[in-house]
Sequence to fold (676 residues):
Amino acid sequence: MRYIVAFAAFLMVSTSALAQDDPVVLVVHGGAGGNKKAMGPAVEKQCRDTMERALKAGRDAIDKGESLDGVEAAIKVLEDSGHFNAGKGAVFNRDGRQELNASIMDGKTRKAGAIAGICRVKNPIAACRVIMEKSGHVFMIGESAERYCKDQGVEMVSPLYFWTDRAWKELQSANAGAKKKAAGLPSPPERGAGGEGDPPHFGTVGAAARDRKGNLAAGTSTGGITYVRPGRVGDSPIIGAGTYAENGVGAVSCTGKGELFIRHTVASDIAARMKYAGDSVNLAASKALNGLPKNPGGAGGIIAIDSKGNVATIFNTAGMFRGTITQSGKIWIAIDPD
Amino acid sequence: MRYIVAFAAFLMVSTSALAQDDPVVLVVHGGAGGNKKAMGPAVEKQCRDTMERALKAGRDAIDKGESLDGVEAAIKVLEDSGHFNAGKGAVFNRDGRQELNASIMDGKTRKAGAIAGICRVKNPIAACRVIMEKSGHVFMIGESAERYCKDQGVEMVSPLYFWTDRAWKELQSANAGAKKKAAGLPSPPERGAGGEGDPPHFGTVGAAARDRKGNLAAGTSTGGITYVRPGRVGDSPIIGAGTYAENGVGAVSCTGKGELFIRHTVASDIAARMKYAGDSVNLAASKALNGLPKNPGGAGGIIAIDSKGNVATIFNTAGMFRGTITQSGKIWIAIDPD
Fold:
């Protein structure tokens, strides 16, 4: 298995000077299923453009507010784009429904909001923020959560809003695969969330931010896995698995085989390694990813930012859509392990 | 002087010898809302008897199988009893429904199963085990999860099975309180899950076990909070928050203000402190509980067992129903901080 620390070399060379003058304020990912060759140049450009818009929107929001605003703004752009498996771009489950999951965490207060199993909220990340700030709770699920969000003025849509031609085709393909499998014929593996057999570029999205005051925040949003069992929830809405933020330590968003990330509490494990073992953000993230049981095709990817503005973006898949933006607006975007 | 040293050495020897000869194999809790005075001797006896049965059932299951079997067997007894806020004894939410949440984790494989927002599964802890072993997933929610459990042969019941007189009275009382609050009159605080304003003895249940081979396992099961917002999920079904187990480190089950336990990833934080900072199980659990934001009336409690069989049972409430059983069957049960 290839194990990649894509951003490490860049960081080691330029971090100290950069971090002082023009630190990274936001890092985003678009899932660890990125494969440049398979997606082709046209789709790659759409995804890169979307990511650039997300980074700019996030940076602007951080400039006017704080890290939490940047995380929400960036993820909203990715959710609305339809180019990633979150929000508009969510995939169908085995019931032909799009069940959305997301979470957000504010490192300053260690408050968090999370939502799972919803089909009518346009921006799950916005719902998470409302739950965090208004409900007195952290985690809400299903139709009751939708009802609460609606009462709170969160933008609702018909489930049809999420019906894209791409998701439809993927469902048909997965359905055909399942029929083949049931008939004992060779079939493709389960798709989605950046795992093996994934479509070339669609994945969970996430963001981690650090503002001028050193406040950290993180968020993650997903549309699940095509043809997945209804009611299945991955790591994206789980604080400590898919998302974690703690001022003075780090902010983390994960993507990949959600079950592994839950079982190994990956996001909080990274923070714990930094807090208790003194690991750097990059070492902590690398160890956490490396500690997952090996799966063919890789387990996923991680983005993280520490309290000094050091960034880690790592993955053990063929590629991960990821990008950073600095305080002054300098953007870096990559897919391959380059 | 020499005499005293010799005596101390003897003590040290005999403690470790004891742990070797007849180690604790199972520790259980019945929520951190225990208050002996408020519950009265009759209810206390019922709860103690139930806990004793749970400990014995758990020990027997460990004897025939492994730690995971003990956790499931013990929690099943507590769920079935109606004396705790889990399974049969679950409380009503604001929709007049009992939404059950639970999780289980096997330290040997770090596999886990969790379920939330279900109303028709008799033993949520058994559903967790089925999800863990058969679904390929970790976490399933709502009616889809129920449907899956039913298909897998998990015992289903009508929602009416959970309708107890006690839960009904509590709902009425909470409802009346909410009406008073809405009218601007003094009202009691929100109840349940071992927090302030809780009924005297009902709480989330949990277990942590260590078998002869050193395999660790943990589980937690809850009926939520009386009059809570529908769709709210606490820490009980969250791996790393309410439940965590990892061979060579520890097994943990938490109870209390679920939101705090999620935000501070308490169960995995205890394991992380043991792994990365070298803390004992007792120190790690104490630090984790002390690290929670202070709330009037306390945040909750924790039970944990480490890879050597050392046990921690701590809480910052008036009391916590808790007990242990050794390999040979020696039982210890307590409520007060004594």
